Amino acid sequence: MLERLAALRPGAPVLSPARRVTRYRHMREREVTMGDQPCSACGGTGLTDKTSYEFELDDTGNQVPVQRNYTSACTNCGGTGRIG
Questions:
Q1: Given the DSSP bridges, would you call strands 37-38 and 82-83 parallel, antiparallel or unpaired?
Q2: Which is higher by pLDDT, 36 or 69?
Q3: Cα-flanking dihedrals φ and ψ of residue 56, to 5°?
Q4: Contact criterion met (CB below 8 Å) for 16 and 24
Q5: CA–CA dist 3, 41 (Å, integer)
Q6: Which of 10, 14, 21, 25 has the smallest set of CB atoms within 10 Å of its CB?
Q7: Within 13 Å and on the Cβ side, how many CA atoms surround 82?
Q8: Strand, helix or coil at 63?
Q9: pTM above threshold 0.85
């Protein structure tokens, strides 16, 4: 039977049914573990302080550097506070 499976997908590793179940179980356990970890970038809050640097024109037409600080959703976890 394993030979028939190999013929369906040339080059793919052929695993016995028992190994497939074990492999899936390990993948599933890893997903659950990773999803339970707090984001290291925001500390689990889902928010981070950010700074933007821009140039604006003053009254005389000269460029003046402007720095703006703001809080927004964490880009690492998407604002969920969890990695996974």
A1: antiparallel
A2: 69
A3: -125, 160
A4: no
A5: 48
A6: 10
A7: 9
A8: strand
A9: no
Which pLDDT does position 33 carry in this prediction?
54
Residue 11: phi and psi, rounded to 5, are 90, -15
Exposure string for 15-47, b = 16+ CB within 10 A, e = fewer: eeeeeeeeeeeeeeeeeeeeeeeebeebeeebe
* Cβ pair 72, 48 in contact under 8 A: yes
Which tokens go with 41? Answer: 């970038």
Beta carbons within 8 Å of 84's beta carbon, 6+ residues apart: 31, 34, 35, 36, 37
